[in-house]
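I'm stuck. Protein, please.
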Amino acid sequence: RVEWDKGRAVEFLLESFAPPAGAPVLYIGDDTTDEDAFRALRGWGNGSSGEGVLVSHDPPGATAARSYLRDPQEVVELLRALAGP
């Protein structure tokens, strides 16, 4: 049995792709199992700006995510804004 969760998956991807220091890294999740990934982004120390975004209809309680969106439509709007014209 392999011990694996979304946090370890994020760590693996960050180590494999090694984004340069200062590069933005975004993880969007809508489930309690995404908390491991949010924590992995916060703990990653190469100087990249890791941003965990929780998507939830209810205001978040305790979460390791740095940002919060209310629904999938707000996710679409965020991604469009990031993609630019």
Remarks:
- The CA atoms of residues 7 and 37 lie 4 Å apart.
- The radius of gyration is 13 Å.
